[in-house]
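Ticket reopened. Same input as before:
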Amino acid sequence: MTVNAEELELKDRLNLIEVMITEGRRTTESWGSIFVVWGIAFYVAFAWFVLSHSPYAWPITMICTYALTRVINARRRGGQPRTTMGRSIGSIWKAMAISMFILFPAIGISGKTVDPSILTAIVATMLGISTAASSIILKWKLQFGCALIWWTVAVVSCFGTIRQSMIAFLAANLLCHISFGVYGFICEARRTSQGASHA
Amino acid sequence: MPELPELNPVIHGKLRLALLSLLVGVEEAEFTWLRSKTGATDGNLGAQLAKLEEAGYVSVKKKFVQRKPQTLYRITEAGRAAMAEYVRALKQMLGGAIGA
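Engineering reply: fixed in the latest deploy. New output:
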């Protein structure tokens, strides 16, 4: 082999490495549908609680939504590899869900009276933490904007009436879960179609 | 003239190099995903992955998901180190060739 042919082969190998590493990293998790599902779940639980005052409204809706999320995750993975970024983001939301599942039943069982506005502030703050952490990992400013909205709801809940805090929470849910989820879904679909055209 | 390094023959194979490069960017990947990214046949892909496993550069985990068998591959620390060394050697050789 001549020096030039050898050099070309080496460059070809270097290029192959770059292309394949990029291919691996291009693999992204899809989260849009999960946000929409959780957004709807909050409305369902809220409506159920307001209409029936059932103490089971929130826990049952949350457990069912968690099961649904697991099913969606299992189906959508479809051979996609696991990435460190995906695991990091997933772990943030799992930790938040575990915190809520521990805190709220504990408050309920303890029998202590907690102002609903303060409970709303706690939930909004926790959602703000998870949303902000995800946005920092993904370097996604729009998602950080959603975190700011959740934190605003937390502040409003501390100073406003129960009615005001509920309205703020439901509006934030529409913006930060449902609208953001639909937007994420559109972005993912666009990215997938671009990937397909590159292949 | 400084002596140029030798390239690791286990990694130098085109398909094996592509596989290791793909695995560098992810935590673990399924056989089917590696096949779709490389366009290799099942037989060839399996053989090359077996060579990488034999060299200790990848680890394999087999499991069942919804009753379907799933084979997951993950790059090992030795694989990462070998890959880094390969890239360093490759760059050095190319630097030598450019400088010549």
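The first strand of chain B starts at residue 29 and ends at 30. The beta strands of chain B are 29-30, 58-65, 68-75. Please confirm and we'll close it.
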